[in-house]
Every structure is written in structure tokens, then in C-alpha cells.
């Protein structure tokens, strides 16, 4: 008889004591994210039937045209976190500035801050291709009892307490880490519960997939160009297979399962790269390392970068360890 799968709720409770800070607050926080994920999933699944696809008409702080689902997901995650009174601050790709949670947490007793990319890969919404949500959780640096400050958000990725993503794909999955490995949970839509389907996820040490927007090729630094040529060369187990969804979450998820590398290099069109350190690179890098993979900006470990601004962008190289090592060697060689 098949073994009964653990629900995400059960898993969170069972693993509560192994958290670095086991007051139960982090469990509540993860449960809020689980709830918001289900609400956003429901809306994503209806795209095409209700008036939720297309541009909202606004431009976000990143200079991007916001999609209606960007706005919807942003509101849902923020509202859920504020209403449940478990965070003291939130920063989002879709918000100009960080939010200090004063309404529910009047005395500023909450310890955790959350940074989110509410909807990742939003250019894929209109064409029914996988999108995601990315979250990153830190303990505040400033003492409780006062409002959060920018310093609470500008912490190195190595300080993350938890991070994860939801991928709204052929099935919806929530994948997260609290620094003790990576576990993946699949939503059973008939029941509305996430079940542990991918315990202890690990990147294969090597892979054969490379994921990069090659349309930007001519603008890439020489080291990246050389590495792409290496991926394409017929030799040994190469050429590698090119796979690029255009949604970091989905590209990362596939590469973690199959073995591969994701690149969003510095390119002269979009200096210094496109991906946001705080909402995208840090949480994905934490997951990568927890799954025996690797993430860097080509030279420096992502989790060691000291952020200087909320919406900072960095080059990003992430995936199977041997592949990232090889890519870094090409970058160093071309310096
Ligand atoms: P977002 O939808 O949150 O703004 O993120 C989009 C990011 C990332 O998900 C994806 O890998 C990358 O942008 C795609 O960029 P290009 O279209 O330039 O390849
Ligand atoms: Mn965006
Ligand atoms: Mn994104
Ligand atoms: Mn986004």
C-alpha cells in the first residue's frame, strides 16, 4: 500500500523545532505564504476566463509594465502577511519602497521581514506558460519595539532564515528551505492541500541543460560568450541542450531536477544584469546551495554580496555545481 504523503502543514509543524528560531512564528509565517499561494494559484488558473490577463496600465519601480496578475499577486501576499500579524516589514519587486507593518503590529513586536517577487515570469501569463512566486525571509536586524528600517532589508543573503518559491506549472508546487535542505510540495487541487512530493531535492552535480536568453548574446561579456560556445561545441557529452522558459522559477525548478545552469549575465543593454538581488537571486541562491548547487554573479558568491539598495540588480549564474564552476572559469579567464 502506498505510504500516506505528509501535508505541508504537517511538515511545517514537525520541523518547527529544527528551525534556528523555534518560537512558532516562522511556522505561522510559512503557513501564511502557503495560504496566499493557494489564493494566487486559484486566480492564475482562471487567467483567460476572467479579466486578469494583460497589462495593468502602470509601470513599476523596475521600469516594467505591470501585468494585472503582478498587481493581484502583490496585493494578496502583502494583505495575507499583514492581516495575520506575523511580519514587521515587507519589500516587494512591485513596491517602490519597503512597507513597515504598523497597522497590526502597533508595538513592533514581530521579528520577521519578508521580501517577495509576487509573480515571476509575468511575460508568460498571457500565453499560458508557467509563472511563479519567490519569497525570502530574514529576522530583523534592528531591535523589536521600533519600526523597521532599510538596514533590516539590506542583509546579505547568507542571513536568510528561509526562502522558497511557488511554481504555477502543470501542477502547482511550493518548494522551500529553512537551511536544512530543500523540500517540494505539490498541490492537490481537488483537496486544496500541498503534499510532500519531492523530499530532499538535490541538483545533480553536473548537467546538460543551459538556460539563457541568447537574443542578448552580442551584448554579453566575452567570458559568457565563450562559455555559451563551449556549451554548443560537439565534444564529450556536448552539445548541451538549450532550454529557456523566461521565468526564473520554472527554469530553476527544471534545472534543479534535471541538472543544468541558468545564466542572466551582465549585458550592455541591461547593466548590470536584470535579476533583482533581494527578490530573486538571494532566495534562489539559498535554495541552490541547500540543494548542493551553486550561485554566483560570475565571480562572487551571491549570498556574500552586501546589498546597497532595495531594487539592486546583479548578474546571475546558478545551477549544477560543476557547470557553475566551469562557467566561472571562463569568466575569470576572459577578465
Ligand atoms: P519578473 O516577471 O518577476 O519581472 O521576472 C522576470 C525575470 C525572470 O523571471 C526571467 O528569468 C527573466 O526576467 C526573463 O528576462 P528576459 O525576458 O530578458 O529573458
Ligand atoms: Mn517584473
Ligand atoms: Mn521575477
Ligand atoms: Mn515579478
Quickly describe the structure.
Its main location: cytoplasm. Helices cover 29% and strands 23% of the residues. The chain is an alpha+beta fold and 335 residues long.
Summarize the structure in words.
By secondary structure, this protein is an alpha+beta fold. The chain folds into two domains: 8-198, Fructose-1,6-Bisphosphatase, Chain A, domain 1 (2-Layer Sandwich), CATH 3.30.540; 209-334, D-Maltodextrin-Binding Protein, domain 2 (3-Layer(aba) Sandwich), CATH 3.40.190.80. The chain is 29% helix and 23% strand. It contains eight helices and 15 strands. The strands form three sheets. Strands 4-3-5-6-7-8-9-10 form an eight-stranded mixed β-sheet, sandwiched between helices. The protein has a five-stranded mixed β-sheet with strand order 12-11-13-15-14, sandwiched between helices. It has a two-stranded antiparallel ribbon with strand order 1-2. 47% of the residues are buried. Bound molecules: 2,5-anhydro-1,6-di-O-phosphono-D-glucitol and manganese (II) ion (3 copies). The site of one manganese (II) ion has 4 residues, from strand 5. Pathway: Carbohydrate biosynthesis; Calvin cycle. Its main location: cytoplasm. InterPro entries: FBPase_C_dom (IPR044015), FBPase_class-1 (IPR000146), FBPase_N (IPR033391), FBPtase (IPR028343), Fructose_bisphosphatase_AS (IPR020548). Belongs to the FBPase class 1 family. This is Fructose-1,6-bisphosphatase class 1.
